[in-house]
Q: What sequence folds into this?
């Protein structure tokens, strides 16, 4: 059975490691509790920009060295930035874990050279332009800005040209010093490794990191009804997106919300699928559960021909509304959803990379470690009564709705 190894270093850095001697690989990740919601509006996008800069070299390594060494150890590696975290990780053979830890910990203390900053800024602006050409991303950004208006969760992860162009290397360094502090980072590991060796190595490589005492603003965003339509000659389909309140990552009803969203809006076999996709009324239709730190939301959406827009929106809202009271999820639907979700969770948990990411996020959100068996048990425990309690607490109102549609 996997065993937990938990250690807090003198500078506040936390190590959460799940040791499984039967695994054939090991994964390690550095989870920085910083994302778009932690940025001041004038520097929106700095978290994602900073993620790029982590691969540009350190005092010990050039950018070429970083990429070459990952290749040398045969690592499956990557990084990502979200609204609430920036994560750097590597999945390797057990004998390569020491080098992976050394490389990742070194990367997290980058040179942040002005020349590299100026060059990479062009890459970021090109990436913003690329995503602006994708209707689903434009719609999501617009929806978040409307739904979380006045709250930092409304920030765009990539930023905008108006925030990235004037951003300076000095501003990035200040953000780095505050947010990439030892007490704002969790190191998570899973798989086959020597726990004592890993604990010592992480401590040795990060002993010089300083704490900052930085904290996240947990102010609750306002929730209000909102609806608008954006006409654009760049799109040929009608896109609909909707946000409505749901449980947070800390809410005990989060498992019930996962089951409810699967019953109503999974991309295959859900109520929305049978109401909209299978009969050919819409090309896509779904409802997903989107939990955050202290707040959560359901996101519903559909893609269809413009001529079908009113019919699709009516069916989508009607399907969601009836699932609340008139036709709540049946025992059979709940059981099928739990089986699907349990399979997904187990498949993810069978790989050290999946477990590493799960336990890292668990700790950032709830300061707790949940074994895979306990997570599955909590999912299996969801009942119709819990779904009823969920729907009473989160009745799919108010709703923010944005439509992106072709110009006439």
A:
């Amino acid at each position: 059975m996997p065993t937990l190894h938990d250690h807090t270093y003198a500078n506040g850095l936390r190590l959460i490691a799940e040791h499984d001697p039967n695994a054939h690989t090991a994964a390690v990740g550095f989870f920085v509790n910083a994302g778009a919601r932690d940025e001041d509006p004038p520097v929106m996008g700095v978290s994602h920009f900073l993620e790029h800069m982590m691969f540009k070299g350190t005092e010990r390594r050039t950018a070429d060295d970083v990429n070459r060494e990952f290749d040398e150890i045969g690592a499956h590696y990557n990084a990502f930035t979200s609204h609430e975290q920036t994560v750097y990780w590597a999945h390797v053979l057990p004998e390569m874990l020491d080098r992976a830890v050394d490389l990742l910990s070194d990367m997290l203390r980058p040179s942040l050279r002005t020349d590299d900053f100026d060059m990479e800024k062009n890459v970021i602006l090109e990436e913003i332009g690329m995503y602006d050409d994708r209707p689903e991303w434009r719609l999501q950004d617009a929806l978040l800005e409307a739904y979380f208006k006045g709250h930092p969760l409304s920030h765009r992860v990539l930023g905008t040209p108006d925030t990235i162009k004037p951003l300076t290397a000095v501003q990035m360094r200040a953000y780095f010093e505050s947010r990439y502090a030892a007490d704002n980072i969790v190191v998570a590991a899973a798989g086959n490794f020597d726990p004592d060796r890993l604990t010592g190595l992480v401590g040795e490589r990060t002993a010089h990191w300083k704490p900052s005492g930085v904290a996240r603003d947990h102010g609750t965003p306002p929730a209000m009804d909102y609806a608008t339509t954006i006409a654009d000659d760049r799109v040929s389909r009608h896109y609909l997106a909707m946000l409505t309140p749901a449980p947070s990552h800390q809410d005990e009803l989060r498992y019930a919300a996962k089951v409810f969203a699967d019953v109503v809006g999974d991309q295959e076999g859900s109520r929305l699928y049978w109401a909209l996709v299978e009969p050919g009324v819409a090309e896509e239709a779904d409802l997903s559960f989107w939990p955050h730190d202290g707040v959560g939301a359901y996101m519903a959406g559909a893609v269809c021909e413009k001529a079908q827009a009113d019919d699709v929106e009516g069916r989508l809202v009607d399907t969601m509304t009836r699932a609340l009271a008139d036709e709540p999820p049946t025992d059979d639907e709940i059981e099928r959803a739990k089986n699907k979700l349990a399979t997904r969770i187990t498949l993810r948990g069978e790989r050290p990379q999946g477990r590493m990411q799960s336990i890292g996020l668990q700790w950032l959100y709830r300061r707790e470690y949940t074994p895979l068996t306990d997570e599955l048990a909590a999912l299996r425990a969801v009942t119709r009564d819990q779904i009823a309690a969920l729907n009473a607490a989160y009745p799919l109102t108010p709703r923010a709705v944005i439509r992106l549609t072709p110009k006439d």
Notes: Residues 7 and 309 are 54 Å apart (CA to CA). The mean pLDDT is 96. The two ends are 61 Å apart (CA to CA).
